[in-house]
Design goal:
The structure holds 2 protein chains of 2 kinds. Chain A is mainly α. Chain A has one domain: Helix Hairpins (Orthogonal Bundle). The radius of gyration of chain A is 17 Å and the shape is elongated. By secondary structure, chain B is mainly alpha-helical. Among the domains of chain B are: about 80 residues, Four Helix Bundle (Hemerythrin (Met), subunit A), CATH 1.20.120; about 35 residues. Chain B is built from 6 helices and no strands. Chain B is extended and about 70 Å long. The chains are: A mainly alpha, B mainly alpha. Chains A and B meet through helix 1, helix 2 and helix 3 of A and helix 1, helix 2, helix 3, helix 4 and helix 5 of B.
Chain lengths: ~100, ~170
């Protein structure tokens, strides 16, 4: 018995929507960022799976994933810098405390 | 055999992903996320992307998660219990993500079964990836280096202490 593409796609969809749920329900900015990383990783699994099952003689999906990992690293660095800045300003990293634009 | 390993890895990563989202303490979330990334690296190994599995462990589990841990310890987040969102937001988030998952799973289920291509187990090794990376993907590779440089400069600028405002 081999793994079918369907099972991998369903698994990565489950992981993606766990990330969506976390992004919507958490108020801690760092945990929200972690949920985003979870979503990025499920997309990476999709790329690799499609590369293996549909485009086996080439490596394009692998390179997409490689570049997504690099961009995720840059994104995490900038986001954490922003979070530290927000913490210095508001003395909290709760996303609902940063409401200066609201008024 | 492979199917068993696949199901085991999937169950472990879905469980640890859920724990990332559900656990109250930020440090626990980070540790569960590290575990989740290791299981995802196992998935990469099973999908013939050996190099990518190594890169994933090094970059995510090694670099990004350590950065998260440092920040959490620096900001001392475990002292105050995290405020929770209202139950209505949680319920609507469950409904939203559950429905979208349902739609996606249903559309995948309805699709016709694809026969797997010829297995080529050694295509994800470093030699093949290096050959193509420095040939076909040379320009994106260089652009990524520029992106990382600018992200580094931005992070340093943003994380710097603000100069004290002058009193008049």
């Amino acid at each position: 018995m081999n793994i079918t593409l369907h099972e991998i796609l369903i698994f990565s969809a489950a992981l993606f929507f766990i990330g969506v749920y976390g992004f919507l329900t958490r108020r801690n900015m760092i945990t929200m960022l972690m949920a985003v990383e979870l979503m990025l990783n499920s997309v990476n699994i999709n790329f690799i799976a499609f590369n293996k099952y549909l485009w086996n003689h080439q490596l394009d999906g692998v390179f997409f994933t490689l570049f997504i990992i690099a961009i995720a690293a840059a994104e995490a660095a900038v986001a954490i810098a922003i979070i530290i800045h927000v913490y210095r300003h508001f003395k909290s990293i709760d996303a609902e405390d940063a409401v200066e634009l609201k008024n | 055999m492979t199917l068993t390993v696949f199901y085991l890895l999937s169950a472990l990563s879905v469980f640890s992903g859920l724990m990332v989202v559900l656990s109250r303490k930020a440090v626990h979330s980070v540790l569960y996320l590290v575990f989740c990334f290791f299981t995802i690296a196992g998935h990469y190994l099973m999908l013939n992307a050996q190099f990518l599995a190594a890169v994933h462990v090094i970059v995510y589990a090694g670099a990004i998660m350590v950065l998260f841990l440092f920040v959490i310890m620096m900001l001392n987040l475990n002292l105050a219990a995290e405020a929770q969102k209202t139950p209505w937001i949680k319920i609507s988030a469950v409904i939203l993500s559950g429905l979208m998952l349902l739609v996606l799973v249903a559309s995948v289920k309805g699709a016709e079964e694809l026969s797997a291509a010829q297995p080529q187990n050694d295509i994800g090794l470093v030699k093949n990836i290096g050959n193509i990376l420095f040939d076909k993907y040379l320009l994106p590779f260089e652009l990524i280096s520029l992106l990382l440089l600018s992200a580094m400069v931005g992070a340093v600028l943003m994380g710097r202490k603000e100069p004290q405002p002058q009193n008049e």
